[in-house]
Design brief:
Length: 221
């Protein structure tokens, strides 16, 4: 199924994903991770995009971002991804596609925001990179657990929803919820209940709810 045009509504959290082209690694050194994190922080601040959660994996990134205008995500991420790709390509003296197409973005209602927070934090554990979520350095998990500023994460916004982040992680993986997030990533359709989708449809003048499968009634054929 083709991916929908991005649905970006001011103030609505989005789960953003970007993968390396062909599954290639996008972070080869600690400096690569550090450069992307710092560039993302600066570009999101300039574009008025709040960063609620982030996790940098060897060959992809997961972000939970809240733009304040419809063009915020594009402004922040286009510059971040262009600069990161250019830096790595220059160091390796290579050219070609660095990222796998355009980044994915899925608007989320509140229950799915909680699922995304768990999914992002537990990604390194589920990938077998670390035993505990806070063992992974290149993520917002440590800041959210400790309530300590890391220069990028909007800790206050997350703690309004999850006063004790450790309790959320203690629930473990939500495989059904995580599967919904992965499916939505490939299509870009917002995740939420009927009321949430209706609100976004009214704000964007778009049809966003999935069409029902099956044949049309005879009188509508």
């Amino acid at each position: 199924m083709a991916r929908l045009a991005r649905v970006v509504v001011p103030g609505v959290p989005c789960h953003v994903t970007q993968r390396g082209n062909g599954g290639q690694k996008v972070f080869l050194t600690e400096d690569d991770y550090r450069f992307y994190r710092d560039t993302l922080a600066a570009q999101c601040e300039a574009a008025h995009v709040a960063v609620w959660s982030w996790c940098l994996m060897p060959n992809h990134v997961h972000l939970l971002l809240v733009p304040q205008d419809e063009d915020g995500l594009r402004r922040a991420l286009a510059a971040t991804h262009r600069r990161h790709a250019g830096r790595v390509h220059a160091r390796l003296k290579r050219t070609g596609h660095f990222w796998q197409g355009r980044y994915g973005s899925v608007a989320l209602d509140e229950p799915h925001v909680l699922a995304a927070l768990r999914y992002i934090a537990l990604n390194p554990v589920r990938a077998g990179l670390v035993r505990k979520a806070d063992d992974w350095r290149w993520a917002s998990t440590r800041a959210l657990l400790a309530g300590a500023e890391d220069g990028i994460t909007d800790i206050a916004a997350v703690r309004q929803r999850v006063p004790r982040f450790a309790d959320l992680l203690a629930l473990g993986p939500d495989e059904e919820g995580f599967a919904r997030l992965r499916r939505a990533e490939t299509v870009g359709r917002p995740l939420g209940d009927a009321g949430f989708l209706a609100r976004l449809e009214a704000l964007t003048s778009r049809t966003l709810a999935a069409a029902r499968r099956g044949r049309k009634p005879r009188d509508e054929a």
